[in-house]
Design goal:
Blueprint: E1 4-8, E2 14-19, E3 22-25, E4 28-29, H1 35-38, H2 46-54, H3 63-75, H4 81-87, H5 91-95, H6 107-121, E5 136-140, H7 144-154, E6 159-163, H8 172-175, H9 184-195, E7 200-202, H10 213-219, E8 222-225, E9 231-232, E10 245-247, H11 248-256, E11 266-270, H12 274-285, E12 289-294, H13 305-313, E13 317-320, E14 322-330, E15 337-350, E16 356-360, E17 366-370, E18 372-375, E19 379-380, E20 391-392, E21 395-396, E22 409-411, H14 421-439, H15 476-479, H16 492-499, H17 513-517, E23 523-525, E24 535-537, H18 547-551, E25 557-558
Parallel strand pairs: 5-6, 5-8, 6-7, 8-22, 10-18, 11-12, 11-18, 12-13
Antiparallel strand pairs: 1-2, 2-3, 4-25, 9-19, 14-15, 15-16, 15-17, 20-21, 23-24
Length: 563
C-alpha cells in the first residue's frame, strides 16, 4: 500500500497521513514543560538532572559521571546547588505531579546531593564563550542575586566587578541564615567558584557612601543592583527604642558575624516569617526560653513549613493571634527586663496579601515579662546615597526583565521585593540576559511561558509506588546545644532511588509502551539517539489509531486530530 506524507506547518509540527484518499493526523512527539520547572523561580531543568541520574545505567554511564552531567545541567541556571539544596523551600516540589500519587520527588534533597558531589569532585562552572568582551558591568551586592548576575555575565565574556558593603560575600545567605542551616564552608566554596571565572570582588565598599553611584554609571557600561533587604523593620510601638528591643535582621547579622549577643533567659520574637523563625531558633541555641508572637494563626505564617515544625520540636512556644502594643525596658544586656504589653487579635476581612486581617480585641491586653524582644516584622533595602535609583518607598522599581527606568541600570532580588534566595538567583540570571541584549543594542524579551503538563494528562497508574527518600536529621535535644548542621545529605543509594521516582513529565523516558502496543509496528527505538528522541515513528506505517498516545505515561505523545 502506498502512503503520501504531507507536511503541515503548525506549532508543534505535525504530520498528515493520506491513505487511499482518507487522511488523518498521526500522533506526534511534543516536549512539554514539567510543572516542577514551571514552579522554580530559576527555571532549573529539574527533569533533566533527575533523569540523567535515573537513566545512567541504561546509557552505560557511571553514577559519578551521571552526577557530573547533572551538576552541569543544574548550574547552567543556578551556580549554587549545595547552598540551595540546604536553604530553598522547594516550591518545585509543590508542583511535582508525583504529589498526586505517593508524594512529590525530594527535589531539594537531590539538588543538595548534586551540589555536594560537585564540591567533592572540584567541578568548575562552564563558560559560554571564549570571547573576551570590552564592556564592563558593575554589580552592587555580593549576595545570591548579585553573584548570579555576575556569573551569567562573566560566562558570556564580560568584565564584572562586584561591590560589597560587608567584609565578606554572601549577603543574606551569610548574614541572615544561621550556620546550622547553611555551613559556611559550603557557602564559601560555591561562591568562590563564581569568582574563579575572573570576577573582581571589592568588599567593604558601600556604593553611595564609599563610592558615588554616579561614578559607577560613568565607569561601567551597565549596573546591576542586588543590595538585598538588610534593614530590619521596627515594631513602631512606644518603647521599641530600648537596647533589648532589636530587629531580628540585626540580631542575626551580629550572630552570623561572630559577635557575642546576650539575650538573657527569656526572649520574645515578634513575626511569622523566616527571619522570625531563624531568630527564635538561634535564641534557643543561646539558652533562652523562646516565645514567638504572631498576630495571625499558624496557617497564615509565611515561614517555611518545615522550619516551623523544627522550631516546635526544639521547644519554642507559639503565641498566635496576639500583637505588641508597647514595651517598657529596664537595664541593659542579659539582665535587662522588658515588659511587653500585648493585645489579643481576631481575624477579620482579607487584606491585599489574601490573608485575613488581624483586628485587636478590646479589653484583651496582657503583658509578657522577658529579657529581650526581637522584631521580625519586615525589612527593606538600604539605598543610602543612591537617590537617583527609581524606587517606591525604598524598593527599587523594575520591569519584568529587571530593568529600571534608567538606561543601563537593572535590579533584582530583595532590592525589588523580599522573597526566597532562589528567586534572587532567577532575577540575576534574567537581568544578565537583559544586560547582554542592551550591550548589543537589543531589547530582551522573555520567551512565552509554556503550559506545564498536568497529572490528569498522564497515566499515573503506570508508575510503581515508591516511598520518598528522606534525609536524616539531628534529634531536637542535640540541635539546641550548638550550631551543628541539622540535616544530612541523602546517601548515594537514596539519591539514585529518588531520581527514579521522577516521572519525566512531558518527555519520553523510553518506557517502550508506544512500541509494544503499536499494532502497525510503526514505532522503533534507538538508544544512540538523544534523550527524548530514542523512540520514533515511521509515519508511512502509522494508521493514526493513537494507541501510542493513549498508553504514553508521561504525556509526551499528543493525539493527532482528524481533518
Amino acid at each position: 500500500m502506498d502512503y503520501e506524507i504531507i507536511k503541515i506547518k503548525t506549532l508543534p509540527p505535525d504530520e498528515v497521513v493520506v491513505v487511499n484518499g482518507t487522511s488523518w493526523k498521526c500522533p506526534v512527539y511534543v516536549r512539554r514543560m514539567p510543572p516542577c520547572r514551571s514552579n522554580c523561580p530559576t527555571s532549573e531543568d529539574i527533569r533533566g538532572y533527575l533523569t540523567t541520574v535515573a537513566q545512567a545505567k541504561d546509557n552505560n554511564t557511571s553514577i559519578d559521571d551521571a552526577l557530573d552531567e547533572a551538576w552541569y545541567v543544574l548550574t547552567d541556571k543556578n551556580p549554587f546547588p549545595a547552598i540551595h539544596g540546604r536553604v530553598c523551600p522547594h516550591p518545585c516540589e509543590d508542583g511535582c505531579n508525583r504529589l498526586y500519587k505517593d508524594g512529590s520527588v525530594a527535589i531539594n534533597s537531590f539538588e543538595r546531593v548534586i551540589g555536594d558531589h560537585g564540591l567533592k569532585r572540584g567541578l568548575k562552572l562552564r563558560m559560554l564563550t571564549d570571547e573576551k568582551r570590552d564592556k564592563k558591568i558593575a554589580v552592587i551586592g555580593a549576595g545570591p542575586s548579585g553573584l548570579s548576575c555576575a556569573y551569567q555575565l562573566a560566562r558570556r565574556g564580560y568584565k564584572v566587578t562586584v561591590f560589597e558593603a560587608n567584609d565578606q560575600m554572601g549577603g543574606m545567605l551569610r548574614y541572615g541564615i544561621p550556620k546550622y542551616r547553611l555551613p559556611r564552608e559550603i557557602l564559601d566554596a560555591e561562591m568562590q567558584r563564581v569568582l574563579d571565572l575572573g570576577i573582581e570582588l571589592r568588599c567593604n565598599t558601600k556604593v553611595g557612601v564609599d563610592i558615588p553611584f554616579s561614578q559607577l554609571r560613568k565607569e561601567y557600561d551597565a549596573v546591576y543592583i542586588g543590595v538585598g533587604a538588610q534593614k530590619g523593620g521596627t515594631l513602631s510601638i512606644p518603647g521599641d527604642d530600648h537596647p533589648n528591643v532589636m530587629s531580628g535582621v540585626g540580631f542575626l547579622f551580629k550572630i552570623n558575624n561572630g559577635d557575642t549577643v546576650s539575650v538573657g533567659k527569656k526572649v520574645v520574637v515578634v513575626g511569622g516569617g523566616n527571619t522570625a523563625i531563624d531568630a527564635a531558633r538561634v535564641s534557643r541555641r543561646l539558652g533562652a526560653d523562646v516565645t514567638l508572637l504572631y498576630r495571625r494563626t499558624k496557617n497564615e505564617m509565611p515561614a517555611i513549613k518545615e522550619e516551623i515544625t523544627a522550631a516546635e520540636a526544639e521547644g519554642i512556644q507559639f503565641h498566635f493571634l496576639a500583637a505588641p502594643v508597647s514595651a517598657e525596658g529596664k537595664g541593659s544586656g542579659a539582665n535587662a527586663t522588658v515588659s511587653l504589653k500585648c493585645v489579643k487579635m481576631a481575624l477579620g476581612e482579607k487584606d491585599k496579601s489574601g490573608r485575613a486581617r488581624p483586628v485587636p480585641v478590646p479589653g484583651s491586653e496582657f503583658t509578657l515579662e522577658v529579657n529581650t524582644v526581637l522584631s521580625a516584622v519586615g525589612q527593606q533595602p538600604d539605598l543610602e546615597g543612591m537617590a537617583e535609583v527609581p524606587n517606591n518607598s525604598s524598593w527599587v522599581v523594575t520591569n519584568a526583565v529587571r530593568e529600571t527606568s534608567v538606561p543601563g541600570v537593572y535590579a533584582g532580588g530583595d532590592a525589588v521585593a523580599v522573597d526566597i534566595a532562589v528567586t534572587a538567583v532567577g532575577h540575576g540570571r534574567k537581568a544578565a540576559r537583559a544586560i547582554n541584549a542592551f550591550l548589543h543594542g537589543r531589547t530582551y524579551k522573555e520567551p512565552p511561558l509554556q503550559r506545564p503538563v498536568k497529572h490528569t494528562e498522564m497515566k499515573l497508574d503506570y508508575y510503581k509506588d515508591a516511598p520518598r527518600n528522606e534525609a536524616e536529621e539531628l534529634p531536637p535535644e542535640m540541635r539546641i546545644g550548638g550550631f551543628e548542621e541539622i540535616h544530612k545529605t541523602l546517601t548515594m543509594e537514596q539519591a539514585v532511588a529518588e531520581s527514579k521516582r521522577c516521572m519525566s513529565c512531558g518527555l519520553c523516558f523510553t518506557c517502550d509502551r508506544c512500541r509494544i502496543f503499536c499494532p502497525r509496528e510503526a514505532v522503533s527505538k534507538d538508544k544512540n539517539r538523544p534523550v527524548g528522541q530514542k523512540m520514533f515513528s515511521d509515519y508511512t506505517r502509522c494508521s493514526g489509531c493513537h494507541i501510542c498516545a493513549e498508553v504514553c505515561p508521561s504525556g509526551y505523545i499528543e493525539m493527532g486530530l482528524g481533518l
